[in-house]
Q: What sequence folds into this?
DNA sequence: CCGGACCGACCGACCAGTCGGTCGGTTGTG
DNA sequence: CACAACCGACCGACTGGTCGGTCGGTCCGG
């Protein structure tokens, strides 16, 4: 039997992800999670020191996966701006495929109260860091004009977040429906700056397509 | 003594706004609010049927005020697009002046759990309605090219939301710092569409300034 | 027979909401 | 004007249910 440690821990994380998605932090009881894991409450507390720690672990796992997806999507692109666009699409479509995950990551955390604040800052910081990096490189590469990339990154993240959250609640418009529009207005908002300052020296490749 | 009804109710609302801003829904006790109002718990329950009702009343009040500000800012503009821009600025700067209000309105609600979902949909719907209306009129007026205005409105709202929330937690960048950048990328994202389809018949007045 | 994994009854803090009671003002009555 | 009957606003001790967390114990593989 021994050395089920990681297996069981994983089972708990999976069950918790689902439970938190359904009911939020407060409304999910430790007994619920124990139940879904076919574990007793005591069994659960053998693996996690507290409910709060469990929640953070769930969030961290999700965020890490998503950030990695975004990063690798971005890395497989030629130009920085395309990379940012790809990261954006990746996040949007991934969350769009997994409504429950989106809900845990973007909504349910707040119900933890003040303990969540630090975590939210950290998670959103990771994402906006990825985007900001790409934007900075795009500026350096002369793809877009200089601008406060931190604000832009945040704004994009917020736009994506709102589209996803609204979809989580409303069911419409779906992220994949929204993607082309988002691409147009977000990336387009920067390209215009480029047009203002036409000092680019890109090697003639066609610029980022503005629609699918 | 009689007929303090409204006065006391108002006092409770004000105190609750502040308490919820500080500690969120769950962490704020009815006793806290009673305390801040120099009222007993029983006294409080004379005026509100439940803690939940109180919270909704607080949120509604704040949202109504803010929506009205946005609408009147928008109404005092000449072109629809300028109106949308003005509404955007108004919301951003108003929230930027009142960090606590921003927190109650945009963050703390989630800590109520599922009961808040309907409310969030409603509140954000009100705001995005204002923006969407303006955008629709801007499309009709030929100021911008046709686009899915619902998605755009949501995206803008999300961008503003994220900037404000990030500021609430991080303290930087401040909404007023972010405003010019937001204006550039958001409104700019639409103007570019205009440039693609140069069929406007605006009466020669200079277009919306892209920076202050 | 040791100890890691797990059990589940139990504890106790916590808190929304209740309820019997108080008290100052107002209204009605003679 | 006096006095009673009434009422709206408010008080605060109490309750009842809920849950996170604990702890003494069990079970099984090595």
A:
């Amino acid at each position: 039997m021994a050395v089920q440690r990681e297996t069981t821990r994983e089972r708990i994380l999976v069950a918790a992800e689902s439970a938190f998605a359904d009911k939020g932090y407060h409304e999910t009881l430790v007994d619920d999670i124990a139940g879904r894991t076919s574990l007793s409450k005591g069994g659960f507390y053998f693996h996690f020191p507290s409910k709060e720690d469990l929640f953070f672990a769930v969030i961290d796992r999700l965020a890490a996966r998503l950030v990695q997806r975004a990063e690798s999507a971005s890395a497989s692109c030629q130009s920085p701006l395309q990379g940012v666009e790809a990261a954006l699409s990746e996040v949007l479509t991934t969350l769009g495929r997994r409504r429950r995950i989106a809900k845990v990551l973007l909504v349910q955390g707040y119900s933890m109260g003040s303990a969540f604040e630090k975590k939210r800052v950290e998670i959103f910081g990771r994402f906006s860091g990825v985007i900001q990096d790409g934007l900075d490189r795009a500026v350096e590469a002369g793809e877009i004009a200089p601008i406060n990339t931190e604000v832009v990154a945040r704004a994009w993240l917020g736009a994506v977040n709102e589209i996803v959250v609204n979809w989580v609640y409303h069911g419409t418009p779906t992220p994949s429906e929204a993607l082309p529009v988002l691409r147009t207005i977000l990336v387009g908002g920067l390209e215009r700056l480029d047009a203002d300052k036409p000092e680019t020296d890109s090697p003639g490749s066609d610029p980022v397509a503005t629609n699918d």
User: Anything to note?
Assistant: Chain A touches chain B through 51 residues (CB under 8 Å). The two ends of chain A are 52 Å apart (CA to CA). Chain A has nine helices and no strands. Residues 1-2, 29-31, 41-42, 45, 50-51 of chain A lie near DNA strand D (CB under 10 Å from a C1').
